[in-house]
């Protein structure tokens, strides 16, 4: 079997399956949070959040008190993207915003926001454990080869 046939039979289909699963699982974190937070109002509020908003909430808890400029730097995103997501987090009660009319507003997590991040961290620990078990099956050289292959594949498309 030549290399291209091997790729098509043993790698390409697995990558397609992973991409399809990932596309369907964009809601995975929200769904997991909703299952592990019994409050219906909070479940609804979580359903309104994007994955980015959930990541920003984690940053607010980690860096609080924090400004939008600090979040722009920490997340490497534009001010507009951060501002829009932070306004939603504030409106839904996950963070408080001092001086809402000022660009240099300072954000703090609410008790609800902190609770959500605590549950997010439980999921992160679970996923980290699963990923550790996966990568432990490979040597560092094998992992480097896999990473190089995936980067080459990404740049080729």
Automatic annotation (TrEMBL):
InterPro entries from the UniProt entry: WH-like_DNA-bd_sf, WH_DNA-bd_sf
Domain of life: Bacteria
Protein name in UniProt: MarR family transcriptional regulator
Organism: Secundilactobacillus hailunensis
